Amino acid sequence: MDIIIFIVSMAALIWGADYIVQESEKIALHFDISPFIIGATLIALGTSLPEMAVSMSASYKGDGDIAVANVIGSTIFNISLVLGAVFLIAKNIKPKRDLFAKDSAWSLFPIFIFILMAIDGKLSRLDGVLFLFLMVAYLIFLIQSNQLEEIDDEIQKEKFAWGKSILFLSIGFVLVIGGADFAIDSAGNIAKAFGVSQWIIGLFLVAFGTSLPELVVSIKAARANNADMAIGAIIGSNVANFTMVLGLSSIINPLNVNLNATFFDVIAALIVSVMLVFITANKLYNKSAGIVMMTVLILVISHSFS
User: Fold this and answer.
1) What is the pTM assigned to this prediction?
2) Most buried residue among 14, 130, 167, 225 by CB atoms closer than 10 A?
3) Strands, E, within the chain: which ranges?
4) pLDDT for 109-155, tens place per residue?
């Protein structure tokens, strides 16, 4: 029964996030915000809502391992699975923005800061506040560094209605918050039933589920030849996961982090982040890079379950 509840709750999380992303995008386009900004901010934050809801709920219930593992796992999935799938599926990826010079470092800053903060074995409420300040700094950086890009005329002409957007946004938030609550309870029960640690459940089962919105949105954007939005959503989502998700979760309840026990998974998240920097530096937006990323994901999963 717990497995069915988990699947239904994850579906609610994904559908809710999809509603929020779609309506946020319409609002952004209505105000002529560029595709990259949409991807790196509204879509990134929208697709991070499942992670945020799950980790905050886990923190409130005292399941700190799930809260932290969800963020680490989502980082690994976002880059290796989501970006790898984008590279494999998209026919021609040519970002207009210089992602290496402007944005790639932001995929490394949060995880380095996380490691430094976790050395003492805990993410305190003060650490959480500092994470939130880092998110604000990222948003300011994006706004200041971005030059407004041309918006698709067909999208601009789409009829916009505030009432409809607010309704669907409200439905989305209800689904995300409710889904997160049931997902945590059922995931904890599944872990106990199968004798699997909460860390592994959070790292793979929960993290994979909460990464599905990023996967769907990024693939849609890439197939529409909007690589800037796809890659921007992944980078922005990873920043949001470490800053907002861990920040808010540790403010609710300080989180214990055992870096010795979770060394491999944290290093794996760091390695895939470095790979993203390497790819943007050398503009390796091709199927070969996608295959390498998928291979890394398989190795990580095999090692963790072995």
Assistant:
1) 0.78
2) 14
3) 122-123, 255-256
4) 889 999 999 999 899 999 999 999 999 998 888 877 755 455 454 44
Number of residues that make up the chain: 306
Residue 232 to residues 10, 42, 105, 123, 152, Cα–Cα distance (Å): 24, 10, 13, 27, 18
Locate 149 and state its tokens.
Answer: 């890009």
Residue type for position 127 = D
Residue 296, amino acid: V
CATH number of the domain bearing residue 182: 1.20.1420.30
Question: Dihedral of CA 138/139/140/142: which sign?
Answer: positive
Number of structural domains in the chain: 1
What tokens were used for 69?
Answer: 């593992």
Report how far residue 99's alpha carbon sits from residue 20's, in angstroms, rounded to the nearest whole number.
26
Round to whole Å and give the CA distance between 191 and 199.
9
Cα separations in angstroms, 110 against 48, 76, 107, 165: 15, 14, 7, 32
283: left (phi over 0), alpha (psi -120 to 50) or beta: left
> Are 68 and 202 a contacting pair, CB within 8 Å?
yes
State mean pLDDT over 57-79: 86
Helix (H, G, I), strand (E, B) or coil at 293: helix
Q: Are strands 122-123 and 255-256 parallel, antiparallel or unpaired?
A: antiparallel
Domain ranges, residue 162: 2-305
* Per-residue CA distances from 141 to 73, 199, 220, 227 (Å): 26, 33, 26, 20
* Banded model confidence at residue 159, pLDDT cuts 50, 70, 90: low
- What angle separates helix 125-145 from helix 109-118, to the nearest 10 degrees? 170
> Do residues 83 and 234 make contact, with C-beta atoms less than 8 angstroms apart?
yes
Give the contacts of 287 (CB within 8 A, at least 6 positions apart).
Answer: 87, 88
pLDDT of 281 reads 86
123 backbone dihedrals φ, ψ, rounded to 5°: -105, 110
Among 187-191, 217-221, 297-301, top mean pLDDT goes to 297-301
